[in-house]
Amino acid sequence: MFFQPYVHHYREIRPAILLDDGSAGVAGVTALSTCRNMLQWHDMHSAPPEKRSIMNNPLAHHITSQAYNNAWANHRLLKACGQLSEAEFQATRVSFFPTIQSTLNHILTCDWFYLDALERELRGEAPHPDCYVFFEQDEPFTDCAALHAAQRASDLRLIAHCRSLCDLDLARPVTILRDTPQVDTRQRMLAHLFQHQIHHRGQVHAMLAGTRIAPPQLDEFYCAGEAGERAQDFAELGWTEDEVWGQR
Questions:
Q1: pTM of this structure
Q2: How is domain 7-245 classified at the CATH fold level?
Q3: Alpha helix locations (H) across the chain?
Q4: Contact 113, 131 (CB under 8 A)
Q5: How confident is the model over 100-134, as pLDDT tens digits?
């Protein structure tokens, strides 16, 4: 079995990413447009199957499973947060960032920051000359539904990026032109991105525990025997177990 170009999920979300939804605001429309463009790019520049076979690229396959886990956890967490009132979503709490809204926005803007660098390197482009542009707004979304849609678009980009990789790609250096330039292998930058999301999702999870909405279980993804626990989420996301895990 081989990784296939990320056509299925592009088709699944295509109506959403082509919709100029004013309720999402400028940031939301921009995020959806970027998602559309990058998924189209991955469809057109997919590597040949022999390059991306699971058997020949176990590390890239693991990285891809991390991207799926990331999207699944975000989906579950944002579904729960979507049940909060606006006041609850924006209420000051005890955490690194003071609200659920601000923490979720931070997760998303950092995703944009790192995804841009990863995608530019894969396309053979120079690093972004102004990488801090992704943080011009600390909180581009004040509405949880719009934030959820933008996070979903970002997660699809990350999955598409990881599915396009072979193990050799993970050793390539990726540069971000911070004040002091950052250079890391793609493997290390992706590992950092996944850990960053886990770190801040945990903070949102803890803040949710202080509300009337129960925080969702986020650790029933990897074990084969727990497929039933994630079946509803996979259906909502348009995934199958075979698609996510491939050859085992």
A1: 0.82
A2: Four Helix Bundle (Hemerythrin (Met), subunit A) (1.20.120)
A3: 7-18, 25-44, 49-52, 58-81, 86-90, 100-123, 144-163, 186-208, 227-237, 241-245
A4: yes
A5: 999 999 999 999 999 999 999 999 999 999 999 99
